[in-house]
Protein 1
Amino acid sequence: MTVRGRALGIAESYADPERSTVAGAIVRTDRALDGLAFSSISVGGTDSTERFVSLWGTLDREDVRYVLVAGVAPAWFNVVDLPRLAETVERPVVAVSFEESEGLEPALREAFSGDALDERLDTYERLPERRRVDLNGETVYVRGAGIDAAAAAEVVRAFTPEGGRPEPLRVARLAARAADAFRHTDGL
């Protein structure tokens, strides 16, 4: 499989206890930045999937072939429904995490109860299996929706010319951090 084209990377940053700044960065396989958009999601909420769909719509870029998401539980367990995101944007979605984990269920059970827990567990249990991918001497963990595991690994490799972070996610994280810092500058 030869991966070419553009990917939308989505990452977040938050200093605010209620809202997390989200950036979407469109990056080509040759590492050129080709678009940016911003949004926010609620910390500890359940709006990540709908806000990511909205971010996609704001960019309105039919030439984007893949969506890469930094993790599956941004902004304190605002769990992303990867299959629903992939179906809605009609593109393969690949979530990339950077640390080994036994899973989110114990942390979810510790942080939430009742309907809040049930909703997050339901979304979490629908997520595709997480697979280890060796990447330029580093390890990442990948989940793909609307794409098989081997192709998801190839997408991650194609958008990671060096290091262990795919370029769309690296740029999106930098943009989210800068936008978050700007939002919290005194006087703004």
Protein 2
Amino acid sequence: MADDPRVAALIASAQRIGADPLDYATVMSYETGGTLDPSTRGGAGNRHIGLIQFGPAEQRAYGASQDQTFEQQLGAVERYLVDRGFKPGMGRLDLYSTINAGSPGRYGASDAGNGGAPGSVADKVRDQMGAHEQKASAFLGGSFTPRMPAEAGGTAGAGAFGLSGPVSAGAASSVTPAAGATMQAPAEAERGPDVAAILKALTSTGAATAAAAPQAAAPAPMPLQPVQRRAQPFDAAAYLASLQRTART
């Protein structure tokens, strides 16, 4: 459909609001039952019309009519999405939440009570849009490559979409590694004290200190001085007296 003027119009419209053209075409295909017909009617009492199934109040507020061409109705689609809070870079989940539930972020909302298909916003994006993505890809003239919707509120490819709904960036970071993956060593700040390293450092420090300290000189031995005996003068009188005492006894 490279020559289809609707393709260029849809891409230009998606660029003006900051949406992915494939997401944009996919949700329109889903809302129109795969026809991309701006006159499509549906919902409770067939009161909803067009590319994103405008309700009666929205038709009046944003100027949507089933008599418009595809290109003309894109203007009403843009006005609705911007007014309801869709921001450039938001992914398919928020794009469809804005269309189906009136604003981004309402992933658990459901319009089943108003004649919509069963399931929440998240259910429909995850489970019911596969065939419409293929139709959208063919409409845009590209080859179909399955992609998961971007994380709510983030830029395309910034998040993930799991089997039970959107997965936050914080949750994605704690996923168990696949088989064969190598776990990274913990950061230094997360490790406990390395006792072996501390002991080694203390030991080496003590040895280095001991080696660096000068050896203390051993005290010199005290010289042995000979006992000086003083010679006593010989007392002859005393000696003779002692002899006489001995003789008398």
